[in-house]
Each structure stands twice: as C-alpha cells, then as structure tokens.
Amino acid sequence: MNQMKKQDELKQDAPENGLSRRRFLGATALAGVAGATGLGTAVMSREAWAAASEEARNKAVIHPGELDEYYGFWSGGHQGEVRVLGVPSMRELMRIPVFNVDSATGWGITNESKDVLGHDNEFLNGDCHHPHISMTDGRYDGKYLFINDKANTRVARIRLDIMKCDKITHIPNVQAIHGLRLQKVPRTKYVFCNAEFVIPQPNDGSDFSLDNSYTMFNAVDADTMEVAWQVIVDGNLDNTDADYTGKYAASTCYNSEKAVDLAGTMRNDRDWVVVFNVERIEAAVKAGNFKTIGDSKVPVVDGRGDSELTRYIPVPKNPHGLNTSPDGKYFIANGKLSPTCSVIAIDKLDDLFDNKIELRDAVVAEPELGLGPLHTTFDGRGNGYTTLFIDSQVCKWNIADAIKHYNGEKVNYIRQKLDVHYQPGHNHASLTESRDADGKWLVVLSKFSKDRFLPVGPLHPENDQLIDISGEEMKLVHDGPTFAEPHDCILVRRDQIKTKKIYDRDDPYFASAREQAKKDGVTLEADNKVIRDGNKVRVYMTSVAPQYGMTEFKVKQGDEVTVYVTNLDTIEDVTHGFCMVNHGVSMEISPQQTSSVTFKADKPGVHWYYCNWFCHALHMEMGGRMIVEKA
C-alpha cells in the first residue's frame, strides 16, 4: 500500500503531468503576489518558466579556463575545516584545515601547524559554523577570515593571502561558541562570538545548580586574537551580528525559562534579542568595573537584567538567525518557532538605551513569512530572503512594505516563494554582509538532499543550491552535494582577495623554523645538514624538483627526529611534499616555504621518505632514506 502511494506521488511529480502539488503551491504563492511585484496576474507557463531558468543557468556557466566572479568560503561543519569555492561555478578550489587533522598538508602533524593548534592540543575534532571576513568601513578588506569551533569553544583566524590558519584562541569561562560575526565599522577590531550553553561559575565541579549558571557574549581582539572582554547574559545565546556604526551588536537569545530540557526551553511565548552597547562595555572595562573568573584574566561585566550595558528586546520564542541589513538600518531576528521575523530599527537603539522608549518600540515590523524562518540575507535593493526550514522554501520579501504593513497599511510584502531541497538552514547572498551587497547570487545551504543525488548509503550529503536573484524572480540554477553539514558561507568579489603565488622567505608562518635554524647556525635556503643535540636530531634539507638536497641521513633508534624541508623552487604551483614511510608523518612544502615535522625513530632499519605532492616528471624518483641504527 505504501509502495503504491509512493509510486502515485512520483507520477504526480513527473514532468509529463505538469506541475507537482508542491510546485503548484510554490507557483500559486508567486501568483498571489504578482500584483505587488509587477510579474503579471497569472502563473508563468511551463515553457516560460523553463526558458527563464535556462537563461539563469547559462549565467552560472564558467567555461574551461575562465575564472569565477566570486570567492565563496564555506564552513566545513563537523570536518572542522573551511572550504573555498568559486561562484557561480560552485567548483571547489581548496580546503583549509583548521580544527581538524589533514594528512595532505600536514595540518595537525607539522610543527608549524602545532604552533597554531597548540603542541599539547587534545582535540582532534571541530565543528565549524560561521565564516566571516574582516572589514574596513563596512566593506570586505580580504585580510582575514574568522571561524568558530562550537565543539571545543574556539575561534580561529585564517590569513587569506596564503589561505592558512595562523591563530586559534580558546574562549575561557564558557562552552560552545556558536554565533560569530565581526565588527564592521570603522574596521574589524572585534570578533563577536556567542557562547551558547549555560554552565555554573566556576565550572569546577563544586556547584551544579542553575542559580549561579549563565553564559556570555564574547569579544575577541581581531589583531591579537586575545579575548578582550565578556558579558554575562540571561538565557542561551544563538546567532549574532553588528551594526554599521561600531556601537552596537545584537544576538538572538533563547531559553529565557532557564530550563535544561527541550520542552522547558519552549514554555515562554517570547524570548529576546539582546543588544550590546559596545561603547558602554568598553567604558566599564576601562573604569575597572569588571570581575574575573578562576584563572582567567579576561574582564567580565554583567549584562543581565536592567544592566546599562544591554537591552533585552522581546521577540517570539526561540529566535535563531540575526542579520544586519546592508543599508545599516535594521537587525532582523528570525523566528524559528514563530512564522515571523522581527525587524529592529537600529536608529531607535540610542533612545532605547537612554530609556526614552519601551523595549518593543524598537521593533518596526514583524512580517509573517512561513514555517520555520531561520536566516535572512539581502540583495541591497531593499529585499530580504529568508529560509523557511519546515516549508523547504526561500521567501523573498520587501522590508519597507513589511514596515508599512506593521503600521496598518494594506500591502503585500511577500514577493516570491521558491522551493528548495530540502529544509534550508543558512543562506547567503553575494556581498550581503557589507555595504556592497549586489543582489546577484544567493546560496541556500539545505540540511537534507534526500533524492537529489545518486544514493551513497545511509549517510547522505547535504545540498547547497545556487539561485539567481539578479532579476525580479528567484531562479534555481545549481545543486551541489556537500559533506558533513557546512552551516554557512560568505561570498566576496575575487578582486577583494589578494593571494600570494609563492611564499615570502620571511613569512611569519614558519618563523619558528627560522629561529631554530639560526640557533643551529643553519642557512635554510642553502644547507643540508644534520644537527645532533643529545637524543634530539634536526635534519635540514632543501628541495628542488625532482630532488631533495639530502637523500640519506642516519639516526639512532629512539632519537626524536625533526626534519626541516625548504622548497627552493620559485615557480608557482610547484609544491613538494615529504612523507616518511611507516611513521605517520607527511607535509606540504609550497614554493619558498619551509615546513618541519617531528617524530620518533623507534624502528631500526631503512625507512624511505618521498615527495607525496606531484612536482615533476621524475616525481616518483624524488626520495631518500633514513637509516636508523640499533640503540
């Protein structure tokens, strides 16, 4: 019976039967707003829709040898990495390991990566959600990308000139960094990040009660990657964003009930958007009006209740996404359990903090969009695009018309609803977090792919869909399978990212190698030497494709061996590798880079090392031997 029903549903969705029920509903939603959008008064014919979609797909075609218009940076989800894609082609260009271990590059294996991760790093996993690019005067400056690790309460910084992580900070006193955004104006001085889960303070096992439990809003100095200050809040923090004045940041906040169970967190009809007055917080810290917790030296201020540092704006229960419109006028809080989004006027916040208006007076619209609104992005033309998780749709709506409707005017603020596949979470339009939002492309990151790709077993990929939003109608042009649940992405113009073709020899990324070589009297660019220091052996070698400068070295069983390889090639894309067989070590050495790896030579005998990055026609012959003498 169930099989027959399924077959009937498949027949109903078949192209020869016209619009499926779901497509029909999506089309009628479009028709219902046709008068407001100037799209006409009838549903488009199948032929017209197909022609429009084909035109949009052609715009996304990047032919061989052509370059994409945008860089896209995707969070790698449970992989703990950042992925780089070209948009609109959606071709994957690079993976940047951050919180994970990567045998291709040696991240988590090399000494240089351990300088960033910590040589005593106990975490082999990460959970990346929100990648965001540093800004100057509200525009992407292409210097850094910042990413969170919810799993282990960390924030990382990636240098975009070499696409490598250069700093990782563990946030003290809190658990689970989730929402992350950057100060936009006058520049990215702070990385704002939300700790989600409430914990007792101090969390040392002496007290498990909720009476002294809370979480905090955190500001990380973007230059030093030190935690600048923390703000105690009521509730659990979710997502966050900042304004275009540098004065305010805001976060969605759920669990005003202070519950520890699912049902309990949904009892109240309203939770909050918490607005943080950055200037007042800085003044409090400067005046010494803070405390510290445990061994941490980070200033902690109290933003609970009637604090002068925060305002708790009531919004429908369990809000999720928090997004700033590119014109700098509004914070948009997405309802999740409510079918609405709450539009907060940023120009009312001064009066709110001066107690001249009531909390809800800052809300200037609350449009009803559909079931499960999670995140909103923008086209720079006054429209918001909100993902509807339960409806599996994106809703395009006009902010100005939503405000008019809130004020009693009879106006339809919804422009279009488009089916996506399936259950969308984040979405992101090109340049949307900056003043330069250009309204060309929209990426929707859907949590389920179901039947969109070839089956690959019980675990399915997610589905990232590319949508053309350059015209009045949204047009789906691409499905892209992704692994391990990327949560969010960010799109920037390709001219905003300036990458190096080869390393500078004084690059700080391998500063520790230069420092050790100097102590050993070694010139990294010329010497091929073995330095013994007790049972510690440092092997320095150069490489020029297809040969290492040292093809054999001897050590004793039990020695701690560190191999430094300096790639002397100056030709772009001639990357070398170093892999010591049966020792669990491998690494990348790009042109003019020095990389190093340390391991224990505990097996007597001959052990070959070889280049594991193809570099030359004689690549297979590029190798050498480590001779390990018995102790």
Automatic annotation (TrEMBL):
The keyword Chloroplast does not apply. Keywords: Calcium, Copper, Metal-binding, Oxidoreductase, Periplasm, Signal. GO terms for molecular function: calcium ion binding; copper ion binding; cytochrome-c oxidase activity; nitrous-oxide reductase activity. Pathway: Nitrogen metabolism; nitrate reduction (denitrification); dinitrogen from nitrate: step 4/4. Its cofactor is Ca(2+); Cu cation. It is found in: Periplasm. Nitrous-oxide reductase is part of a bacterial respiratory system which is activated under anaerobic conditions in the presence of nitrate or nitrous oxide. This is Nitrous-oxide reductase.
